[in-house]
Specification:
With 435 residues, the chain is of the alpha/beta class. It has a domain at 83-102 and 220-404: Rossmann fold, CATH 3.40.50. Helices cover 44% and strands 17% of the residues. It has helices spanning 15-21, 40-44, 51-63, 69-79, 107-121, 138-147, 166-173, 188-200, 202-207, 218-224, 226-235, 252-262, 279-286, 310-316, 321-327, 335-349, 355-370, 390-397, 405-408, 424-433; strands spanning 2-5, 8-14, 30-32, 86-88, 93-97, 129-134, 153-160, 179-185, 209-212, 241-247, 269-274, 328-332, 376-382, 418-421. The strands form 3 sheets. A 6-stranded mixed β-sheet has the order 4-5-13-10-11-12, sandwiched between helices. A hairpin with a 2-residue loop joins strand 1 and strand 2 (8-14). Helix 6 (138-147) runs parallel beside helix 7 and helix 10 (218-224) crosses helix 12 (252-262). The radius of gyration is 21 Å and the shape is globular. The structure holds pyridoxal-5'-phosphate (PLP). Residues 105, 107, 138, 215, 247-253, 301-302, 356, 383-384 line the site of pyridoxal-5'-phosphate. Pyridoxal-5'-phosphate binds at residues 105, 107, 138, 215, 247-253, 301-302, 356, 383-384.
Length: 435
């Protein structure tokens, strides 16, 4: 497997380089040079394959011989070790539940796959690899759980003080061992700026071998395409065309879906469902892309004003907006509409959506209303367990919800984090002192 940069199609790097460097020097994003279609036989046989077998076939199709087959098999069996069930909500809408992993958000798929890949590539290195990651909430928990106790790798997580939910904070700050939490008195953007500065800091580079685990890493994207095939397998018997509605922020999840379509997955349409941070739905409508500062909402994992994976979508479609529109439509909703949908799905169908999934559900309904003649089945991605957004969900439904054991156990654990002012030199000194 070889990869190029979205800013330089002549560049060729190995998977190892793309995974370990995360970003090409020209600030583009890595893309595979080829995303071949899977053989017809694969789709015919899909019902007979397990999720892990599907994941292996899809990974092998993109990654080719980048890894020995037995290594790839081991990585898949470690990383893809929990299910992705489609729960039927109505006779034409299902919820693809991506929250059955350790941190209860879909980011577990990417983080676990990436940690396995990085430890493999790091296997013969003597130096400790340090992964720096800034989080607005869910990424940190998934990365912490994914890399916990991984030999030769440590993780330093930066999160904005007071701006992540209580449960999210516990997920970052209670593991210990090779996971270090830094609480920054600033915003998510400040955390991200510190991570960027650390990467460019020659003093740190002398004593640390640094890498990044944010969502632009190709190792997080590849495994996110697996569950689109797994979902299709579960509804294939209905004999309808499938629409996927993807609650989107940085657009990594939906990009992986579009890649699945390029591999031959029969999908009628993808819906880019966002909150009022709507730069992509607006682009699909008007043909103009206008990034802007993000606006806070109750679906805060999608509060992104300049989605980093958007350039990958442009690349996948050779910048041709007409072909992008054939595969993808966009809808966006205000918090009030999100709450309305959470309430109505709960009272009409007894299903509790988290604020992100609710946006996906609502976009499907709107799509069906504007395309009534088509015989479609809609799947929205339920990207996190509703209990991760406990106060919003309980206040909206006016009811207390059951907290799964994984999250409930966190309540008794003690937070350990080092508090920093929004000042790079303090953070730098902390890193230098601990070497
Ligand atoms: C990260 C996240 C999203 C957005 O996913 P992208 O790949 O960034 O578009 C949506 N919902 C939840 C719960 C998330 O954690």
């Amino acid at each position: 497997m070889k990869l190029y940069s979205t800013n330089n199609k002549d560049l060729r790097v190995s998977l190892e380089e793309a995974v370990m460097n995360s970003l090409p020097a020209d600030k583009g994003l890595y893309m595979p040079t080829s995303i071949p279609a899977l053989p017809k036989a694969f789709f015919r046989e899909l019902e007979n394959l397990t999720f892990q077998e599907i994941a292996f076939a899809v990974a092998k199709n993109v990654m080719k011989d980048a890894l020995p087959t037995s290594v790839l098999e081991d990585i898949i069996s470690e990383a893809i070790s929990f299910p992705a069930p489609v729960e039927m909500i109505t006779d034409r809408i299902g919820s693809l539940e991506l929250f059955h992993g350790p941190s209860m958000a879909f980011k577990d798929f990417g983080a676990r796959f990436m940690s396995q890949l990085m430890s493999y590539f790091n296997r013969d290195k003597d130096d400790m690899l340090t992964i720096l990651v800034a989080t607005s909430g869910d990424t940190g928990g998934a990365v912490a759980a994914g890399f916990y106790d991984t030999p030769g790798i440590e993780v330093v997580i930066l999160y904005p003080s007071g701006k992540v939910s209580d449960l999210q904070e516990k997920q970052l700050t209670t593991l210990g061992k090779n996971i270090t939490a830094c609480e920054i008195q600033g915003t998510f953007d400040d955390c991200q700026a510190m991570v960027k500065q650390a990467f460019l800091d020659p003093d740190l580079r002398d004593s640390y071998s640094l890498s990044s685990a944010n969502s632009i890493n190709i190792a997080r994207l590849i495994p996110q395409s697996f569950y689109y095939f797994e979902a299709y397998k579960q509804v294939k018997g209905l004999g309808k065309e499938v629409v996927f509605s993807v609650p989107s922020g940085n657009f990594g999840n939906i990009t992986a879906g579009l890649m699945a379509k390029h591999m031959g997955l029969p999908v009628n349409r993808f819906i880019a469902a966002t909150n009022v941070n709507k730069v992509v739905p607006e682009y699909l409508d008007l043909g103009i892309y206008t990034p802007r500062p993000s606006i806070p909402t109750i679906s805060n994992a999608m509060d992104v004003g300049n989605p980093s994976n958007f350039v990958r979508i442009l690349d996948l479609y050779n910048n041709d907006i007409q072909s992008i529109r054939e595969d993808m439509v966009g809808y966006y909703y205000a918090d009030e509409e999100t709450r309305e949908t959470m309430k109505s799905v709960y009272s009409n169908h007894g299903y509790c959506c988290d604020p992100h999934g609710a946006i996906g559900y609502r976009a499907l309904e709107e799509y069906f209303n504007s395309n009534p003649e088509d015989d479609l089945f809609g799947i929205f991605l339920e990207t996190a367990h509703p209990a991760k957004f406990l106060s919003t969900v309980e206040a909206t439904l006016n009811e207390s919800i059951t907290i799964p054991e994984q999250l409930a156990d966190l309540a008794d654990k003690t937070k350990e984090a080092t508090l920093f002012q929004n000042d790079y030199s303090q953070f730098q000194q902390f890193l230098l002192d601990r070497k």
